[in-house]
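Lecture 7, part B: from sequences to assemblies.

Below are the input chains for today's worked example.
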Amino acid sequence: MKLSSKYNQVNLIASLLVLCITGIAYYFTISYILNRQIDQELKLEEEEIRQFVKKHGELPDMLNFKDGKIAFEEISVQQTDRKFSDIDYLNAKEKEIEPGRSLRSTVTVKGKIYQMLIIKSKLETEDLIRMIFLITLGIIGLLLTVLTIVNRLLLKKLWAPFFKLLQQMKTFNITDQRELLVDTTRIDEFDELNQAALSMSSRVKKDYKSLKSFTENAAHEMMTPIAVLNGKLDSLLQTESITENQAGLMNDMYVAVSRLSRLNQSLLLLVKIENNLLQDDQENLDLRELLEQKIRQFRELLESKNIQLQANLQSKEIRMNKYLTDILLNNLLSNAWRHTSSGEEVKIILDQQKLTILNTGGTALDADKIFLRFHKNAASEGSGLGLAISKQICDSYGFKLEYTYQMPYHRFDVVFKASNQ
Amino acid sequence: MMSKNHVNLFNPKNPGSGIKFSCFKNSSDFRFTFKQTIRILKILIVEDEAGLRKTILDYFTGEGNICETAENYQEAIEKVALYQYDCILLDLTLPDGNGLDVLRNLKKLAKDEGVLIISARHSLDDKLTGLDLGADDYLVKPFHLAELKARVTAIVRRKNFEGNIVIRFNEMQINQQSKEVSVLDQQVPLTRKEYDLLLYFLANKGKVISKNAIAEHLWGDGVDLVDNFDFIYTHIKNLRKKLIQAGAADYIHSLYGMGYKFSE
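Predicted structure of the full complex, as structure tokens:
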């Protein structure tokens, strides 16, 4: 629920409640005052009747007049109390039932006790009350409408800086060099929020930057010792009389050093792609031509494992960094080559929308984890970074890299961005 | 071929190179050993990491090559100004300066030395700037010494012969322009990889080259072969067979299958 709706809702309920209570109080007060006025008139009438009785020694005629009536009835028992009450009576003149106010009282004429009933119509009073009630209702309605409109306009204007900040936070990119743009508002809370958001974003960016430069520096610093290790191994290889046993040990060391260096280079590459250091250097590339080159490069490797390669390539131009494109194709093909068993097959399909690489062998992989760094199955000899790098490259160009398993194929799709087609 | 060589002998841009090739006065001299065609190399190694500097120095010394070292920017600038080298191995990150400034200095001095940048940075910018400033090649650390040697050899050849050279080794002739190999004047058809491999071996003659180094040279470091080196074995076997069949001696020796050595 939106804050403004919630606010309006509370506002509306509170206003309604207060206005209703006011209305009721208003109604009762007016009714009370008007009743008292009628009662006063009734008493006056009674007094007139008593004076008539005293003067003439007889009851006046029972009367029906326009807004009331007077009636007498002989009773046997003296009733002392006078009673005012609301009553519905038949207005003889108007010939309809009308609400009225009555006064019951007794009068003694020549030893006989009579009960007299004086009724006065309340029709006009009721009309008055109804009118007041309607006007009140109208005012309530008007007030609520005005309140709602004012709230909506005011809230929209007041919250504008908030929504501006929110929009920027939604599109916040940690690798983006630009700072958040905030206006100074006249509202302290929003100013405070803006300042907090600014300082938070710059702090986060600073931390991220230092983390990345740490990774980069660490990887760089490691390169020199690896280079020394590599060089010393090359030198050691030149020494005379190496035994077979020593040669085996050195071979293992070569493999380990080469893996370490590859891992390091992959980490550096990841940092660079994340830093957007490479993406900007774009050119128009003929993807089919690059793929054909890559396939030529891999042909021998594939043939050595007796892997059947089928390629169905359409012409496709793409705007990318050449170095990154090369790495992407390399990683995807290496991946297919490495995980396809002897005698199985690899298919490469390129069309205008996507590049698909299919390979058989093994069972379905966990699509959620496959692109995570250092995620690899136990049998894999790779660094565990190849697909993570591929994913990063695709992300940086707005491409989608997806993995699905369609018996018996592992399927990798690079779906190009619409604008890059 | 001869005329090309002669042009180069008196090339004012390459003072000194004339003396070293003065033995090629007539075509029969080409029959002499490979050692005569590879002149003495004078190399400057600019590298601040002592371990690496010594390793490179050891690998390049021998065959009469002269190697000098500089461990910082200042030393490099001084040596570059004072002496003439065939090739300078230049590390970019030096404790007291940037290797690129050494390059700028070379350019300012109008010197025409071959420069191979060896850098820990796999940075496209550095590479482009370096090549722009006149460096001939760019090698990223870590590298194999054999690869370094092959690149230096290629630079020196390119500098002195503008790539147009026939390499001779005993009964073998390799024409770098047409990429043709012949043994005893008989052409030997080699695949691209076998040809690359032969050149690589010749540049690292007398040295044991690990399978790793060969794999990276032939496939580049983009292809992660891990420890599957059967391919190399096949190529080496084929190359060796072709050369022997054509009448060459058996120059390629295996060291327990983990490395290979090209030697007489």
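Note for the exam: The radius of gyration of chain B is 19 Å. Keep this in mind when comparing with the next example.
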